[in-house]
ABC transporter ATPase (Flavobacterium johnsoniae), 160 residues
Amino acid sequence: MYIPFENLPGESRVWIYQSNRKFSEEEFSEIETDLKAFVEEWAAHGTSLEASFLLKYNRFIILAVNQEVQAATGCSIDSSVEFIQGLEKKYDVDLLDKMNVTFKLGEHIAHKPLIDFKKMVKDKSVSENTIVFNNLVNNIEEFNDSWEVPAADSWHSRFF
């Protein structure tokens, strides 16, 4: 059951998928339609999940579930991953590789393999003040507080 993202409680679980490229406006519109249909039908052991999604920067897909109503289970999580894999194939993008870093360079959103990000740190092309996207956040409260943060305040700090 779809619930507007802002109406979900802060403890709601989130999963963040980052694309290795920016989606076009048309692609993002199609993805929004597909996500809404998926979330409307998303269930755990036959019980509808109170869920939502957020699309950010034409690059990020954030899924959320209110676990107080019904917890996401292995099967429901698997179905969401299958849905994401379907988007990967449809749009020829990578959404599941966690060994990439997405960060801001001024107004531009950059996406680099972790090894390239480490090289940028060494070359001082990015700093501890560079805004990174911490996709390891677990819930909406953490998403709101700690998703877009200076690298010094995230797991990326180990590279400085």
Observations:
- The chain has a mean pLDDT of 93.
- DSSP finds four helices and nine strands in the chain.
- The two ends are 43 Å apart (CA to CA).
